[in-house]
Amino acid sequence: MENVRIDFRDQISGNKLKSFFLMFFIFAILVLFGYVISFAFEPGFFFIIMIISIIISLSYIWISFYNSGKIAIASVGAKEAKRNDYKQFYQLVEGLTIASGLPMPKLYVMPSQQINAFASGRDPKNAVICVTEGALNKLDKRELEGVLAHELGHVANYDIRYMTLITVMVGMVAIISELFLRSLWFSGDHDNKNAIFIVIGIALAILAPIVVQLVQLGISRKREFTADATAVKFTRYPAGLIGALKKIKSDYAPEEKKVSKAVAPLFFSNPLKGWGSTHPPIEKRIATLEKM
Question: Fewer beta carbons below 10 Å: N end or C end of the chain?
């Protein structure tokens, strides 16, 4: 079975399907939570506060989403890449956009000796791709092309828009959980028939944010596999991406700059040592690519 080849098209469609199931799971938790709380409290009181909170949170998320590229670039201190200074960077991305049919994104360089990169932006027309100085210095041409193809894969698959939707849903669960727990301090006596719903609501308020955050990390990992498969689709050369992942695995460059946890899932590899599992194990990504 070890010699069975994996078609990148199957990998892309399979991971997308799994991601949609994970997103539906978050939505189901949100509906269940609201249903339980509606029994624990006066429905009108709860829904008025919930509607106001959702409007505020969605407004914040929309502003962040609309300016996601600018926010991500500013958060890591990246500078715009000038064509005269980064000719190979531009040539590789231009070649990949021709192969993929995507618009040319804006290119940036981040000051870090780690081998890494990320893509951001609300859609392909407003996409940005940022690479670290370490990636430009340590990767050869085919390896760098593989990394850039991976990031363009995120753009082509609308991963930024998709992950923003997940962020909205996760944020709504967290807000409702916080509102419910805080409202217990200000609520009066409840009928015994509501006691069971209050207990269930407390349990959900504590566990739901943890569960949906784990689901969010799971979705992020699935999207990385999909982007790897899309990179193979664009380059038809998995060896380049495999070589880049092997160099990242053996690279021990220090983390010079603190990266926000909100931005970490965007990166090609996890930039936060010892935090979370925003990305699949490098060994598993390499093993999957070797079968393509």
Answer: N
